[in-house]
Amino acid sequence: MSKKYFGTDGIRGRVNLEKINGGMFFKFGLAAGTHFKNQKKSKQIAIIAKDTRLSGYTLEPALVSGLTSAGMHVFTFGPLPTNGLAMLTKKMRANMGIMITASHNLYHDNGLKLFGPDGLKLSDKIEKKN
Q1: Of 119, 127, 117, nearest to 9 (Cα)?
Q2: Per-domain residue ranges for the chain?
Q3: Quick one: pLDDT at residue 120?
Q4: Looking at the annotation, which residues are catalytic?
């Protein structure tokens, strides 16, 4: 099965085209929240951070809406380094961490990277399920 959305390191693309827009971020949040809320925890937690791209401020609310629609409690941390989010995901015992970033891509791009409860990037196997 080939990857539909995820590349080698998360989802990246031009903002407001194809897969990087509010509607898709809502769907990603709903799918990820549905997958990760199945962990046996008393409180289902997702944490979100982002880089300083302006488009992150428009994509984040859609992502939060999808996650909360799936029953997740969401904490947003604003701009934070990716490794900081990974560490917080593990430290807070969150179900997942989501970084809104396009890393080294051009300014008009954005995307997201998902981390599991261990603070590590999701495996290809889990990404294919979502």
Answers
A1: 127
A2: 11-129
A3: 93
A4: 103
